[in-house]
Amino acid sequence: MTDRSFNQPLGGNAMPRFGGPATMMRLPAASSPAGLDACFVGVPFDIGTSNRSGARFGPRQIRAESCLLRPYNMATRAAPFDSLQVADIGDVAINTFNLLDSLKIIEAAYDVIAASGACPLTMGGDHTIVLPILRALAKKHGPIGIVHIDAHADINDDMFGERYAHGTPFRRAIEEGLIAPKRMVQIGLRGTGYTAEDFDWPRSHGVRVVAAEECWYKSLAPLMDEVRESFGRGPVYITFDIDGLDPSCAPGTGTPEVGGLTTVQGLEIIRGCRGMDVIGGDLVEVAPPYDASGNTSLLAANLLYEMLCVLPGVNYRA
Ligand code: MN
Ligand code: MN
């Protein structure tokens, strides 16, 4: 295989990194997922947020900060553009005046992606969007294993009486059979709540809940060894709420909680997914209006790149 067969990110010696169109990683833009092995896609949706909105600006800002990313992973030796055809297929045209209609629009967009065979890597958007994504992917793959990084379990039965919001998607997904709960882990949960049910409801359904306090001062590589072992074979989806990380690492988000995971632990979790049958991933809840330095979006771009680096079929240069 040669590099010429596959799309390559625009290099910094061909165009300054601060120039050119702001696609994810300066990859070519594509109008559809046809012919791609993986695609970056934005969902500029934040009408499911409960506190600070702004995640609608996430995809655009993540793309802008991603201009610094280079193609080769120095740490893991992954060279995803040696063996995967990847492009940025743009944003899903959600209806920002109608949440329920937007869920249908997102599901239909991911039906097309799933049918194409491309593995979607999504820039959110608030966490509501994972529900229609899983609805589409589960039609193809059946119940899906989930690696969920978050400060919150997102298993509320309702919020202000509404069943669809950014704090409810995993309740709905488990109820709808989209998830294999015994192949689901939630990492980084913490903070204040209303009742113990927030974390006990997923446990009662077989989900492994790893509270942030269990992660403090530790490498998470051993945890991920256990997760890979227990998940075995079968489809796995990575859903990364940036508020799983500590606000000192990722201040630009709508529902920050203190005492969170470190950037390094976030990298360890994703790198620990190597070897699993990863069928897609998302990075949600980046709210650029609260991200004065751009560091949150830069981190988000890096985490999405790391997801790309653990997809099946990635070439690792010895
Ligand atoms: Mn969340
Ligand atoms: Mn959260």
Compute the CA-based radius of gyration.
18 Å
Number of DSSP-assigned strands? 10
Structural class: alpha/beta
Distance between the termini: 15 Å
Enumerate how many helices there are, as a single number. 10
Mind explaining what this structure looks like?
With 318 residues, the protein is an alpha/beta fold. The chain has a single domain (36-316), classed as 3-Layer(aba) Sandwich (Arginase, Chain A). The chain is built from ten helices and ten strands. The chain has helices at residues 58-65, 80-83, 99-116, 130-141, 169-175, 197-204, 212-215, 221-231, 263-271, 295-309; strands at 38-43, 78-79, 86-91, 119-124, 144-149, 179-189, 208-211, 235-241, 277-284, 315-316. The strands form two sheets. An eight-stranded parallel beta sheet has the order 3-1-4-9-8-5-6-7, sandwiched between helices. Strands 2-10 form a two-stranded antiparallel sheet. The longest helix has 18 residues, at 99-116. It starts with 37 loop residues before the first strand and ends with a strand. Bound molecules: manganese (II) ion (2 copies). One manganese (II) ion binds next to loops.
Q: Topology, pairings included?
A:
Layout: E1 38-43, H1 58-65, E2 78-79, H2 80-83, E3 86-91, H3 99-116, E4 119-124, H4 130-141, E5 144-149, H5 169-175, E6 179-189, H6 197-204, E7 208-211, H7 212-215, H8 221-231, E8 235-241, H9 263-271, E9 277-284, H10 295-309, E10 315-316
Parallel strand pairs: 1-3, 1-4, 4-9, 5-6, 5-8, 6-7, 8-9
Antiparallel strand pairs: 2-10
Helix pairs in contact: 1-10, 3-4, 4-5, 9-10
Bound molecules: manganese (II) ion (MN) (2 copies).
